[in-house]
């Protein structure tokens, strides 16, 4: 396996198996954010004089330093509520956004899987723990250790006096996207999208800065796209979602990441873990030939799965997989042995990420075909096709390997919880019964 550094590690749970011991590196989940702020007026502009306006990409690069620098001293006129970085404090005024956020994976970004691993790494490998935190808990206030540079240029890890364990547990909280140096930043209001810059009108926390980048896909790029020299297998980057979007027809149609994952600016960020969201992303059709064939003759079916509703590959990442199954059942509903045929849609890799086994994902706008061809059983009454989604397929295998080995350490109970959760997430996306005559 190529030598890895924090810069090149894939943005999810990267395990390296040494002997029989699984050594975890890090887990990174989606980072997409937008907030809704209302009843505002413009009182100035961030760009002064004739200085050129900052591009969306420049803003994203500046905004997404990792870790996000400490917020620093709280403005003297801030109340205790305005000074807080906790999401429940934001929710006291932004209740709809907070309510949605609590149901999202962003709120669970520092769940037991990541937390259990970083507990082990904090002392033994703080540099790798910091890579995990960079997307799962990016605020410096969420990180127990900081990397400091001494006067002689030597870097060392020190205890972070501003660390807030409550804030860390909230993962990708409101402040991760919307607070820098205690200044609030969000998208322009819907009624006047052209109004950008500082907006005040006596609002709490000194108003906010209206920034158009919050509604652009580039805002999501930092955690959903590796650079050209990032970690890759078989010549393909492990994390390539933003590039997949660029290569689709979505940019030309003006469909951004937020268009689908934050509909009507809601803080939901639904993806492949959500059956309703997944059903919007694909179209499945079934054609059967030979429904009237006799026992012993060939029974054939074609299942077409088209990526009609996602602006990236389906699935975009290597942690989920989609299993298409066809089988015959008798009149009592029991599966008839030796009539099952399956195909997998996904990117299968070895557990140590050293090799890609296959990649059958469906690019945006394209289709995959599953051909069922089996002898009809004399007991067959119906032909069944099922499309099943396993959102945490890789994680389930990884956490199981950790528990079977001895690398979980003091995070073992948390890893066990993560494994149990991963096992509970599969669902049936599509099921159809074809009556055989």
Description:
The protein has 437 residues and is of the alpha+beta class. It has two domains: 15-224, no CATH class; 275-435, Immunoglobulin-like (Sandwich), CATH 2.60.40.10. Helices cover 25% and strands 23% of the residues. The chain has 15 helices and 18 strands. The protein has helices at residues 56-63, 80-83, 87-91, 95-102, 112-124, 126-136, 165-169, 174-178, 221-224, 241-246, 250-253, 257-261, 275-281, 393-404, 412-423; strands spanning 15-18, 21-24, 145-149, 155-159, 179-180, 183-186, 197-199, 208-210, 232-233, 236-237, 283-289, 298-306, 321-329, 341-349, 356-359, 367-375, 382-390, 427-435. The strands form six sheets. The protein has a five-stranded antiparallel sheet. A hairpin with a 2-residue loop joins β9 (232-233) and β10 (236-237). The termini are far apart.
């Amino acid at each position: 396996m190529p030598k890895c550094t924090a810069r090149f590690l894939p943005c999810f749970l990267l395990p390296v198996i040494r002997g029989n011991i699984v050594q975890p590196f890090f887990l990174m989940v989606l980072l997409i954010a937008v907030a809704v702020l209302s009843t505002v007026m413009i009182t100035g502009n961030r760009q002064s004089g004739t200085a050129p306006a900052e591009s969306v990409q420049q803003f994203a690069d500046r905004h997404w330093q990792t870790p996000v620098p400490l917020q620093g001293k709280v403005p003297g006129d801030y109340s205790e509520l305005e000074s807080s970085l906790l999401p429940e404090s934001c929710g006291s005024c932004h209740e709809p956004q907070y309510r949605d956020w609590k149901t999202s994976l962003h709120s669970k970004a520092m769940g037991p899987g990541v937390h259990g691993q970083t507990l082990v790494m904090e002392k033994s490998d703080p540099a790798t723990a910091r890579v995990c935190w960079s997307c799962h808990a990016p605020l410096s206030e969420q990180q127990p250790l900081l990397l400091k540079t001494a006067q002689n240029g030597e870097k060392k890890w020190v205890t972070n006096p501003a660390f807030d364990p409550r804030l860390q547990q909230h993962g990708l909280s409101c402040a991760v996207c919307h607070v820098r140096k205690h200044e609030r930043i969000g998208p322009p209001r819907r009624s006047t999208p052209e109004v950008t810059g500082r907006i005040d009108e006596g609002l709490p926390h000194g108003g906010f800065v209206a920034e158009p980048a919050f509604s652009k896909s580039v805002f999501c790029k930092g955690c959903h796209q590796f650079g050209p020299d990032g970690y890759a297998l078989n010549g393909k980057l492990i994390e390539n979602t933003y590039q997949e979007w660029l290569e689709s027809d979505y940019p030309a149609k003006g469909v951004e990441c937020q268009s689908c994952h934050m509909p009507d600016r809601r803080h939901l960020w639904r993806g492949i873990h959500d059956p309703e969201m997944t059903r919007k992303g694909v179209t499945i059709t079934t054609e059967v030939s030979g429904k009237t064939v006799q026992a012993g003759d060939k029974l054939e079916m074609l299942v077409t799965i088209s990526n009609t509703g996602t602006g990236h590959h389906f699935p975009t990442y290597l942690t989920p997989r989609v299993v298409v199954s066809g089988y015959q059942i008798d009149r009592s509903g029991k599966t008839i042995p030796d009539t099952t045929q399956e195909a997998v849609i996904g990117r299968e890799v070895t557990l140590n990420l050293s090799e890609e086994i296959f990649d059958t994902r469906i690019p945006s706008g394209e289709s995959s075909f599953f051909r069922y061809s089996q002898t009809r059983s004399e007991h067959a009454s119906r032909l069944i096709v099922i499309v099943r989604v396993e959102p945490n397929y890789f994680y389930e295998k990884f956490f199981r390997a950790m528990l079977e080995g001895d690398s979980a350490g003091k995070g073992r109970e948390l890893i066990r919880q993560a494994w149990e959760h991963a096992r509970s997430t599969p669902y049936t996306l599509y099921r159809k019964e074809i009556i055989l005559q």
